[in-house]
Write a structure and sequence with these properties.
- There is one protein chain.
- The protein is mainly beta and 313 residues long.
- Helix content is 9%, strand content 50%.
- It contains three helices and 22 strands.
- The strands form four sheets. It has a six-stranded antiparallel sheet. Strands 12-22-13-18-19-20 form a six-stranded antiparallel sheet, with no helix packed on it.
- A hairpin with a 2-residue loop joins strand 5 and strand 6.
- The longest helix is centred in the N-terminal third of the chain and has 15 residues.
- The chain starts with 9 loop residues before the first strand and ends with a strand.
Length: 313
């Protein structure tokens, strides 16, 4: 049961140092061991691989760890063994705050990273299933843990997102064009993300979502023939030219995120990855950034696209 319309009971909610968390977990162990299902949430940051959660019991063990810069885990319950290989969470060892949630409900065990489900398994392995006798967070004391919360019933997917840490944008747009100082700040970004919530003003229309001009090139995120395109030029070279096929010109609001980093360009629309392409390209590739506009081209010609927007590093 997902408990969409009820508030799951909180068994533990600690927002202090790791030492306090460790002591409180031991006191909480008998309580969580009596629940049939639930969710455990951890806010942490790390620059190194290592174990994050270790729950041991008479009938099994659940471990979550950072391996190769991504989240990984193992479930051993009775005669079943499953690996929780969240390969898409690569880069979680960047030293920035992240949220991890492990939910066990009637459909199985689900691993969430920063609010998004990164892996799931059909095995049902809550603490009561393994008859937990030991529960530790950051057993090697090598990570920065800022919060541990345990609920005695599974959170809904929406609630997991609500409990996760939010990313603070480097720059937010308050007008159709960035101030020169903020445009210049964009020029220092070798990687990052552009997020925009937009809609076309009518079905079949399109145009620029974000355009930027630099001393050596241009950057454009746009709607073309219903597709979302991202183009970056540097001098005479097109260093990025990707296109996510779709009908994103239907007049409805859409949330689009363009990520450049870790050797690839990724495009997400309404929470789903629609494109992954090798190679990176961002503001620094166009030289000293002079102008950044939204919902219009660089000539400030208003196109048929309404935008709410921000830039993350």
């Amino acid at each position: 049961m997902r408990y969409e319309d009820t508030t799951p009971p909180v068994r533990l909610d600690i927002k202090r140092g790791t030492a306090d968390i460790a002591g409180s977990l031991e006191k909480c162990r008998s309580m969580v061991g009596s629940d049939v299902e639930g969710t455990v949430h951890i806010d942490f940051s790390t620059t190194i691989d290592g174990p994050l959660l270790d729950a041991r019991g008479k009938r099994g063990r659940t471990t979550l760890e950072v391996t190769g810069g991504r989240m990984n885990g193992w479930i051993r319950c009775n005669d079943e063994t499953r690996q929780l290989d969240a390969e898409d969470s690569i880069g979680i060892d960047d030293g920035q705050p992240h949220s991890l949630a492990l939910t066990v409900d009637e459909t199985g065990t689900h691993l969430f990273v920063d609010g998004y489900e990164a892996f799931s398994a059909t095995v049902h392995a809550w603490f009561s299933d393994i008859e937990v006798s030991s529960l530790t967070v950051d057993p090697r004391r090598i990570m920065q843990v800022s919060r541990v919360t345990v609920w005695g019933a599974p959170l809904s997917n929406t609630a997991v997102v609500a409990e996760s840490l939010t990313v603070s944008p480097l720059i937010q747009f308050a007008a159709a064009e960035l101030a020169p100082r903020d445009a210049k700040r964009c020029g220092s970004l070798n990687g990052g993300a552009i997020r925009a919530r937009y809609r076309t003003r009518g079905e079949g229309q399109g145009g620029a979502i974000v355009e930027a001009e630099g001393s050596n090139g241009r950057l454009s995120l746009a709607i073309e023939d219903g597709d979302i395109t991202y183009t970056v030029t540097s001098g005479d070279d097109v260093v990025a030219g990707i296109r996510a096929r779709g009908r994103w010109d239907d007049g409805d609001w859409h949330d689009v995120v363009l990520v450049s980093g870790r050797g690839a360009l990724e495009l997400f629309v309404d929470g789903f990855q629609t494109l992954h392409s090798a190679g990176t390209a961002f503001f620094r590739d166009i030289g000293d950034v002079q102008r950044v506009v939204v919902g219009a081209n660089l000539g400030l010609f208003r196109v048929e696209c309404g935008v709410r927007r921000r830039v993350h590093r």
